[in-house]
């Protein structure tokens, strides 16, 4: 699990749990039937840390000082702007909260009395919750563990003391150019094959990365340039992937895996990249008003042997043990062969069992014949 997160460099956090919460589902797509407690335990043990990266993310603990150093460069990010304003308006209350945690130890937002969160996001939280989030963004607090996915906050120095490996504080001294170079190389390594315009989004770098900026990294041999059929611009591969690149060029790198992806999986979170790589148009529709949704509220892309072949609108009914597929859609150019349908059925059944909702209920599909063909395969899987 740790190797998987290290390979991706970050694991985005999102609290929506219509199906499994996103970080657990991202890992399941790569690891299969693993114990979600591993993620919680790794955070508690200091082998992972929480930080703002792409958005709020789990990151390898060895990378934490890089993100802390980069905080100074991310002052325009909404979380930091809100935190600075909050601190200016509520300095006394936030200082008092810090004193309480210093004396009493780690605390959750639930440990404070107050109104429940409403529909208005950050600003409808009770004051202490807003202050905890602001102090986290400012670096005064860190997340030491999670309890039922709720953040447990402690003083940063106490969390840093338990990191494994120990924090390399020399990385905090890296200047802007060195940090940006590091994050660019890390992004290309994680993305596999990347156009310049995709790179900045991985760590939310500003300004956008350009071919001109990448030229010195190509000249030094750290990045390789490649031409991809039908792309009018160059693409880049990290030098560590030279062997995989050679296999791909010889047609020897074949996709074998089928999995359901989280809407916040790095494979699909960049719409332009998903379109260019897979010809797959994808929007996270949980943020779209219901009348304007095309596919559903929480739609999981289906990865099959290196292609994104479709998507399904899923909901887990945990108390009933039912994994409901409200609708399943195949892309128009996908042929529903028997082997493809078997692989899709196995991936759905495996996700449902891992989630603790082993009974799969498929309501409809497009084309409609797919549901008829899949139902017996789901029962067999």
UniProtKB/TrEMBL annotation:
Residues 102-134 form the Rhodanese domain. InterPro entries: AlkZ-like, Rhodanese-like_dom. This is Winged helix-turn-helix domain-containing protein. The lineage of its organism: Bacteria, Pseudomonadati, Pseudomonadota, Gammaproteobacteria, Lysobacterales.
């Amino acid at each position: 699990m740790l190797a998987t997160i290290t390979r991706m460099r970050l694991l985005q956090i999102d609290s929506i749990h219509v199906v499994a919460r996103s970080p657990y589902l991202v890992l399941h797509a790569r690891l299969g039937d693993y114990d979600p407690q591993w993620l919680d335990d790794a955070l508690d043990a200091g082998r992972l840390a929480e930080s703002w990266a792409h958005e709020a993310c789990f990151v390898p603990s060895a990378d934490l000082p890089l993100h802390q150093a980069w905080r100074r460069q991310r002052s325009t990010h909404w979380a930091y702007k809100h935190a600075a304003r909050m601190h200016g308006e509520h300095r006394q209350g936030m200082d008092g909260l810090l004193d309480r945690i210093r004396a009493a130890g780690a605390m959750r937002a639930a440990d404070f009395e107050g109104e429940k969160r409403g529909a208005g996001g950050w600003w409808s939280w009770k004051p202490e919750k807003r202050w905890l989030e602001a102090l986290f963004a400012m670096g005064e607090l860190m997340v030491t563990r999670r309890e039922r996915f709720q953040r447990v906050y402690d003083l940063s120095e106490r969390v840093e003391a338990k990191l494994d490996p120990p924090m390399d504080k020399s990385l905090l001294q890296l200047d802007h150019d060195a940090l940006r170079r590091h994050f660019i190389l890390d992004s290309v390594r994680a993305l596999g094959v990347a156009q310049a315009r995709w790179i900045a989004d991985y760590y939310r770098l500003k300004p956008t990365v350009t071919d001109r900026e990448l030229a010195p990294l190509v000249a030094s041999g750290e990045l390789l340039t490649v031409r991809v059929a039908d792309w009018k611009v160059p693409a880049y591969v990290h030098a560590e992937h030279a062997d995989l690149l050679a296999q791909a060029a010889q047609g020897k790198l074949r996709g074998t895996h089928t999995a359901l992806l989280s809407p916040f999986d790095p494979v699909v979170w960049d719409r332009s990249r998903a379109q260019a790589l897979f010809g797959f148009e994808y929007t996270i529709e949980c943020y779209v008003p219901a009348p304007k949704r095309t596919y559903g509220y929480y739609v999981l892309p289906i990865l099959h042997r290196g292609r994104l072949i479709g998507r399904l609108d899923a909901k887990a009914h945990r108390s009933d043990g039912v994994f409901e597929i409200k609708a399943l859609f195949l892309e128009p150019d996908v042929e529903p062969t028997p082997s493809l349908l078997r692989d899709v059925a196995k991936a759905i059944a495996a996700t449902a069992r891992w989630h603790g909702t082993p009974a799969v209920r498929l309501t409809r599909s497009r084309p409609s014949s797919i549901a008829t063909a899949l139902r017996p395969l789901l029962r067999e899987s």
